[in-house]
Amino acid sequence: MSISKPLIILFKFFCVLVGFVLALVLLVLLGLNLFKFGYYNEYFSLLSKEAKNPGLSENFVPQGITHCDNLFVTVGYMADDTNSRIYTVDYITGEVKHFPLISDGRSFVGHTGGIQYSNGYFYLANEGNSLYKFTAASVYQKNGTKIEIGLPIKLNSNTSFVYGKENFLYVGEFHKNPEYPCTNEISYNGQTHYAIVEKYDISDLSKPLAVYSIPELVQGFCVKSDGTIVLSTSWSVNSSKFYIYEPEKIVKTGTSYNGADLYFLTEPSKTVKAPAMSEDLDIISIQNHEKVITMFESACNKYVFGKFFFANYIASLGL
């Protein structure tokens, strides 16, 4: 049976229309990708792409990052509600492994937050005042092996992120009203913050040694060798920001909080604007240069849009 001429014409018109729309979409994406280099110029001038961020096409939503030996280690939850996972990528060989998490023998499906390697152990934040500690040997097992993270250690804050330096551990929280409110309301010189970072001796997590009052939307925290504090802040599709606080911007208030000296982070020394959905922070030495590492959750299957902007990498930043 022959196809009528009007149907052939309609089909050709449809093909042309689809082609036109696809071409338009590609042009828009190309334009936006070019625009990002100008809009986030300072960020890209500081950026080195160290490795492909693993698991982004496997329903993994990355939240935390650290490094251990020659491994980048990321942690996050699964969009399909299966066990949360740790991924490792060997930045020398490129080998990738994943490890489903269990807690006290049961499936662990927590949202997770930051992760930190320190002195042979990983420390995993998981909101709800919970911090988990488990051996770093876990990530050297066979690919797919389940990792037992144990029972949670209860702390004072909402434990959204964690950072380790020398023999100290810094644990902090993410604040945003009304979705994720924190109750640590602290004011100094007309500024008010609601979230804190607590500094602990890594051998004693029962009481903090110092408390830092920090702004909202903090996803990650790290301390450089000169005492400079770097914060990663982000929310939704808005631009991320990295706040750099040199030591003179970290004010010792002369008061105490939770039984420890209280510090207040005033206006940052510098702010670097970056693409959306930056996450946890750690510090790594690359060719004897101290760099901040992070990654973005925007390119995972849950959010997708970061795939169109090539945000699928682990980044080191010369902040």
Structural class: mainly beta
Shape, please? globular
Report the mean per-residue pLDDT as an integer: 92
Question: Could you tell me how far the N terminus lies from the C terminus, measured between alpha carbons in angstroms?
Answer: 69 Å
Main sheet properties = 6 strands, mixed
What is the number of strand segments? 26
The helical percent reads: 10-25%
Total number of helical segments?
A: 2
Rg of Cα set:
22 Å
Low-confidence stretches: none
Order of helices and strands: HHEEEEEEEEEEEEEEEEEEEEEEEEEE
Notes on the protein architecture:
- The strands form six sheets. Strands 2, 3, 4, 5, 6 and 10 form a six-stranded mixed beta sheet that branches. Strands 12-13-16-17-22-21 form a six-stranded mixed beta sheet, with no helix packed on it. A four-stranded antiparallel beta sheet has the order 1-26-25-24.
- It is 13% helix and 43% strand.
- The protein has two helices and 26 strands.
- With 319 residues, the protein is mainly β.
- It is globular, with a radius of gyration of 22 Å.
- A hairpin with a 2-residue loop joins strand 7 and strand 8.
- The mean pLDDT is 92.
